[in-house]
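Quick one: DNA binding domain-containing protein, excisionase family from Papillibacter cinnamivorans DSM 12816, structure tokens please.
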Amino acid sequence: MSKQNKTTYTIDECYMMMFSEYEDIVTAQEAASMLRLPVKRVYRMFRSGEIKSFKDARDVRTAKLWIIEYVQRYGFIRQESFRKQRKAAVTVFCQEPKSRKQIQEFLDLADKRFFMESVLQPLVAEGTLVMTKPDQPAYVHQKYVAAKRLTGQEIKEQVEE
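--- reply ---
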């Protein structure tokens, strides 16, 4: 029986072939190249917990498999489209009032400061989210709700995008 060339591959095998030039443990610069994102964005993703990472001597590194896991979950994304996806997800999630912690956990972000500065405050500033107690912005039990109420059909459309 002759050995035939394999013509079908699993998704994991495709990504492993795609990233075969990289070592099993990669630096932030290599991760940025793999994800087609700026290095600064990759460092933020490491810091916020979007991509698992570890400190090695002086550099922050991640496993190639963790990058593949991230790509399988979110795909290759540009920063602007990622913000739009995140904004749409938060708008749908916050149809009912939600606390800062609930929104942060929903987005699966570990770093509170990063979440506040790069996600929550910009959404409040642009009017996507509204505080339930706007006269007390630092209120411990502050909740956030989407400024625009979505109908069932609109929610479906947001989720599909």
